[in-house]
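Reply to dn_fold:

You asked what the input looked like. This is it:
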Amino acid sequence: MDVPEGFQPLFRTSPVLELIGPLYGRGKGADLVVGLRVEAKHCNARGTIHGGILATLADVAIGYAIAFSADPPIGAVTANLSLDYAGTARIGDWVESRVDIHKRGTRLAFGNCYLCVGEERIARASAVFLIAGQL
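and this is what came back:
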């Protein structure tokens, strides 16, 4: 499946991201946008993207934006993640993140994210991360 212009395979991965991916990124640091083309493996029995996939996408988008907004990058461990689902996506839809880092302190960082299909916001997430040193 194709990806929008400017997106490349996400620069950092993990076993769980390999399982749900491929994930794509555009930009860096606080401006990082993470995207996913919805496939059948991402969907529930109703044929729409599973809420757990959206939660994972939001967690990665906020966490990576926070971690890589510092130089050198910092370790950020999820302490809390909250999502509100306001829509859905289907096979073939492109879902991307729009992150806002609210505050990055010495021990905690706070971020918000909208997950969108086009201009439609399908989920709103907020997260708190524990700052765990450098990567």
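Residues 8-134 form a domain with the Thiol Ester Dehydrase; Chain A fold (CATH 3.10.129.10).
Hope that clears it up.
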